Amino acid sequence: MRVHQAGDLDAAERLYGEVLELHAAQPDALHFLGVLAHQRGRSDEAVLLISSALKIIPKHPDAHNNLGNVHKECGRLADAERCYRRALACAPEHYQAQSNLAVVLEAQERLDEAFEAYSKLIQQAPTYAHGYHRLGLFLRNYAQNEEHLEQSAECFRQSYEHDPANVRALEGVGVALYMLHRHDEAADVYRQWLEREPDNPVPRHMLASCGATEAPPRAADDYVRDVFDGFAESFDEQLIQNLGYRAPEVLVGMLDEVTPADGASLDVLDAGCGTGLCAPLLRERARRLVGVDLSGGMVDKARLRGGYDALEVAELTAWLEAHPQAFDLIVSADTLVYFGQLGPVLAAAAGALRPGGWLGFTLEAVEGDGEVAELTSSGRYRHSRSYVEHLLAASGFDAVVVRGDTLRREAGKPVHGWVVRARRSHSPDGA
């Protein structure tokens, strides 16, 4: 267990195996080997191992909780809920199971039950910083009035008070204040944070996001890396289950109109691959599927999900420039929202595509006729349709299609975006 906790999965798996050779029904070895199997992407094996442990120790709350985690991360929410309820039946004060139960109730959009579960969590564990953070996100995600945003900000404050290392809680306070139109207060939170941690890229970027400093042309590498390395563990859960994230499906659906969905004939790049949500949607059309992302934590998750022939940790524009005419299709779901000025990255994408190759990406939308790229309080950029169309044409693309769609929810409201498809011209003059 010590080796496992230290992150040496090879040694831990060998040692658990040695224990089970000596005693095939040793329940802790079965349980924790199951946890390890899930960490390595062998989730079906994990279910069998932890279930075997529970036949021997049926009232073990941690094993029920961990089995629930496997089901939750595989999208089997009803199975996960049953496991968490069993854990709580064994140990009513098991606050991690209570937290996980609240999450799966929220993911099933049983919002009243989820709110009750989060509230019970805070009562059970009044110093549990992560519980306050979860409740803060819940209140912000489903805010119906200003009071909910006020409560969200207070939850984030409590989270930071109980865990000063959780700087994402300060970001939560600032975003909630900005959404309450208390822009000066939001800026003060980020300034105070930056005074305490002058080298932290997150408050520096968020100060710009609330208009207190000049917006950079794109989010700095260290900001993106810090945010997504810290977000990697809960990324899929927050986006898909709690925010109704649908950008990969919508984007690949548009590309189905122009690229073969099977036949494995294309060299495909998942640009800003994150945890690999696009991989299952792209795999059948890919002769070779490559993923690249700036966050090593996200790439580790993508590696566990599988489906890629290669994964790399790199800054996107420079990586594209280093791979001329290497791809037939480049897909980028919710990555270019961290670029204000799209010109350099679109030109690099054109260079990395073979003539006639396709680029597909999503952006958050600004309505109106002007050419607009603006940084928002979320830390992401929004772009106007005319800005996107102009830069694609200038970067050597034709056959441009820009469609409006809803990409996810935020603060209880749909986030409107652009789903974009464009073809690299066969020659510099577009012939």
Give an overview in words.
The protein is of the alpha/beta class. The chain has helices at residues 2-5, 9-22, 27-39, 43-56, 61-73, 77-90, 95-107, 111-124, 129-141, 146-162, 168-179, 183-196, 201-209, 221-231, 235-243, 247-255, 279-282, 296-305, 316-321, 343-352, 385-394; strands at residues 266-271, 286-293, 310-313, 327-332, 353-366, 373-375, 381-384, 397-410, 413-424. Among the domains are: 137-214, Serine Threonine Protein Phosphatase 5, Tetratricopeptide repeat (Alpha Horseshoe), CATH 1.25.40.10; 231-424, Rossmann fold. It contains 21 helices and nine strands. Strands 1, 2, 3, 4, 5, 6, 7, 8 and 9 form a nine-stranded mixed β-sheet that branches. Strand 6 (373-375) and strand 7 (381-384) form a beta hairpin. Helix 5 (61-73) packs parallel to helix 7 (95-107), helix 6 packs antiparallel against helix 7 (95-107) and helix 11 packs antiparallel against helix 12 (183-196). The radius of gyration is 23 Å and the shape is globular. The model has no long low-confidence stretch (mean pLDDT 91).
Under CATH, the homologous superfamily of one domain reads: Vaccinia Virus protein VP39
Number of strands: 9
End-to-end distance, in Å?
A: 63 Å
Helical region count?
Answer: 21
Low-confidence stretches: none
User: What is the average per-residue confidence, as pLDDT, rounded to a whole number?
Assistant: 91
- Examine the secondary-structure arrangement and name the CATH architecture of one domain: 3-Layer(aba) Sandwich
Secondary-structure class? alpha/beta
Range of helix content: 40-55%
Query: Quick one: biggest sheet?
Result: 9 strands, mixed
Molecular shape: globular
CATH class of one domain: Alpha Beta
Portion of residues in beta strands equals 15-25%
Roughly how many Å is the radius of gyration?
Answer: 23 Å
> What is the ordering of alpha helices and beta strands?
HHHHHHHHHHHHHHHHEHEHEHEHEEEHEE
Examine the coordinates and then state which fold CATH places here, giving the name of the CATH topology of one domain.
Rossmann fold
Organism: Dyella thiooxydans
Pfam family, one: Methyltransf_11
GO molecular function: S-adenosylmethionine-dependent methyltransferase activity
Protein name: Methyltransferase type 11 domain-containing protein
